[in-house]
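Feature request, filed as a ticket because there's no other form

It would be nice if the structure record came with a short human-readable summary line next to the tokens. Right now we just get the raw output. Example of a typical job, pasted below so the devs can see what we mean:
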Amino acid sequence: MSAPTVLRQVAAVGTPDGALLHAVVDGSDDAPVTLVLAHSWTLAQAAWDDVAELLSRRVADGDLRVIRYDQRGHGRSTWGRYADDVGELTIDQLGDDLGVLLDELAPSGPVVLAGHSMGGMTIMCLAAARPELFGD
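Raw output as currently delivered:
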């Protein structure tokens, strides 16, 4: 069986301090659920390629939308205001970045967040800063 055809978009989401977050979006904007995948330290969104491939049939069928993104300073994303002193970057900032990404690329509808290591901490920081985004 051949691989399904998946709509893929590449996005650059700007943050308030001038960073650009690189994202790969698979699937239609009107899919009933969006899955956002946050990678770990020193990796990039491509770390989720195998997961995206496993989900490609559901994406092609319109059941799911998958967003993989490069966290600030990783992959194709830039550092923003931290370019001159990356030691000042905090996990709270990464949580804020995820919020900006969600506001831009998944502003409505059910969203499932998944993270590995630093990606999981990023999600927890977003939950602490913006609990209204999370269900019971």
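Something like this underneath would help us a lot:
The longest helix spans residues 91-105.
The beta strands are 8-14, 20-26, 34-38, 65-69, 111-115.
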